[in-house]
């Protein structure tokens, strides 16, 4: 009951009327993969709001199909978040690739969780979804989004999506990016002001040096008009988490296609091609893990694997049809010394516990995140590790409440890090509670029915 009340409070307080902010202070706009995860939990309180969450995000889609990682709220002061709309200048700098003129956004993207979220929101009330034409309206946008990633972002030419900025895979400050970022000349410190330090401890956040490199990469991408053709940018990486989420969402999009009378075959075919490329390009049998590939490294044009163990390398567990031996190896790796799940820690850390760069407090360099653990829990269950999934679910529910729905936590102690009342933490904890049939499920269902908004 405490979890139910707390999660509901966070989601209601962070709701803006059209979408949900990740947090009222640190993140005052709409974020792409945040909204997908938020909708997954929000469907248990209000299917209509969950639909609107995704509709609002997708209404900011660019003409080339990309879904921007931030959609800016014009009512929020420019100095409340950096980089702000006047930095990205999407409607002007992105005009040639179809940036909308009615809304300002960033020009980079985040992991494609959206089709998976749309399918789960639809399944929460299929009849209401059909009455509103929810899937019919969103299917073409989702198909365009996946097409953009598969066609415009295959920068290596080997069938996988590439990211062009550390913010794109969502794990912004991962040690996996240290070597690729070392090639980037940072923007001078006096040319930008970090608003994130107004809301979070410096020890929990990226360093000024790393932030300067993030700014440089974003500015360079903006100044080339957000085009993806031409030579690969200074930062070009094939990330296993991004590609695994695209594969899972292609499977979801195949189901959506069937529901709206479209052909699911192209989505299933793309999912199979991506799965084969993921295994061929990023699987490292010696590590028992998928690794990132730096396209600007190596000498043969194919890039080089980055020898850092990140939780992104476990996310292919969510891929249907992943070879059994690889799934089994990933489960062993998750509970082994490097990630310690169920042995030294209760939640999956974002980075190798034994890695030289491990930091239990600093953003994506060790702390445990709830979206990662929600995905791993789902993957464990998909591949038959039910007991491990049950234990992880229990740990996530306990920690969500005890941490005050923190943005992330120390993987050893569960101590809250980052901001509190974080929306996807509340949403995904609520989803784990309801889908497990835990205490309070009946109340959630009853409240959703009573609070149903008019069609």
Outline the structure in words:
By secondary structure, this protein is mainly alpha-helical. 45% of the residues lie in helices and 5% in strands. The chain has helices at residues 2-13, 32-42, 47-58, 85-88, 90-93, 114-124, 126-132, 134-152, 178-181, 208-223, 240-260, 265-282, 324-335, 370-382, 386-402, 423-435, 441-450, and strands spanning 30-31, 70-71, 162-163, 237-238, 283-284, 289-290, 293-294, 304-305, 368-369, 408-409, 416-417. The protein has a 4-stranded antiparallel sheet. β5 (283-284) and β6 form a beta hairpin. α6 (114-124) packs across α11 and α14 runs antiparallel to α15 (386-402). The longest helix is centred in the middle third of the chain and has 21 residues, at 240-260. The radius of gyration is 20 Å and the shape is globular. It starts with a helix and ends in a 5-residue tail after the last helix.
């Amino acid at each position: 009951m405490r979890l139910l009340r707390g999660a509901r409070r966070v989601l209601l307080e962070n709701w803006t009327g059209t979408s949900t902010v990740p947090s009222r202070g640190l993140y005052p706009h709409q974020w792409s993969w945040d909204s997908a995860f938020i909708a997954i939990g929000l469907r248990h309180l209000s299917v209509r709001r969950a639909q609107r969450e995704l509709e609002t995000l997708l209404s900011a889609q660019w003409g080339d199909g990309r879904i921007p990682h931030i959609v800016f709220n014009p009512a929020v002061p420019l100095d409340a978040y950096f980089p702000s709309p006047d930095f990205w200048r999407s409607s002007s700098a992105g005009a040639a690739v179809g940036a909308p003129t009615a809304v300002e956004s960033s020009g980079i993207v985040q992991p494609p969780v959206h089709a998976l979220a749309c399918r789960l929101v639809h399944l929460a009330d299929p009849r209401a979804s059909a009455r509103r034409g929810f899937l019919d309206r969103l299917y073409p946008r989702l198909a365009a989004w996946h097409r953009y990633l598969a066609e415009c972002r295959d920068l290596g030419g080997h069938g996988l999506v590439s990211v062009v900025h550390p913010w794109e895979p969502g794990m912004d400050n991962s040690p996996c990016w240290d070597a690729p970022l070392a090639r980037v000349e940072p923007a001078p410190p006096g040319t930008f002001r970090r608003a994130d330090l107004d809301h979070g401890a410096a020890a929990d956040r990226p360093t000024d040096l790393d932030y300067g490199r993030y700014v440089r990469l974003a500015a360079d991408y903006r100044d080339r008009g957000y085009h993806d053709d031409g030579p690969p940018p200074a930062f070009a990486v094939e990330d296993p988490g991004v590609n695994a989420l695209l594969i899972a969402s292609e499977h979801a999009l195949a189901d959506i296609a069937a529901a709206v009378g479209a052909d699911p075959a192209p989505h299933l075919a793309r999912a199979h091609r991506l799965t084969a490329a993921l295994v061929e390009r990023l699987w490292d049998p010696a590590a028992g893990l998928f690794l990132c590939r730096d396209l600007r490294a190596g000498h043969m044009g194919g890039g080089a694997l980055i020898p850092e163990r990140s939780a992104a390398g476990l996310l292919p567990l969510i891929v249907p049809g992943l070879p059994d031996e690889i799934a089994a190896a990933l489960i062993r790796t998750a509970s082994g010394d490097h990630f310690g799940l169920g042995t030294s820690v209760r939640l999956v850390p974002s980075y190798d516990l034994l890695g030289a760069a491990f930091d239990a407090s600093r953003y994506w360099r060790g702390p445990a995140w709830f979206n990662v653990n929600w995905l791993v829990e789902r993957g464990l269950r998909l591949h038959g590790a039910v007991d491990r999934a049950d234990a992880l679910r229990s740990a996530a529910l306990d920690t969500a409440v005890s941490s005050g729905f923190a943005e992330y936590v120390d993987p050893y102690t569960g101590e809250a890090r980052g901001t509190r009342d974080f929306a996807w933490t509340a949403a995904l904890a609520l989803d784990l509670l309801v889908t497990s049939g835990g205490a309070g499920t009946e109340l959630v269902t009853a409240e959703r029915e009573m609070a149903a908004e008019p069609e």
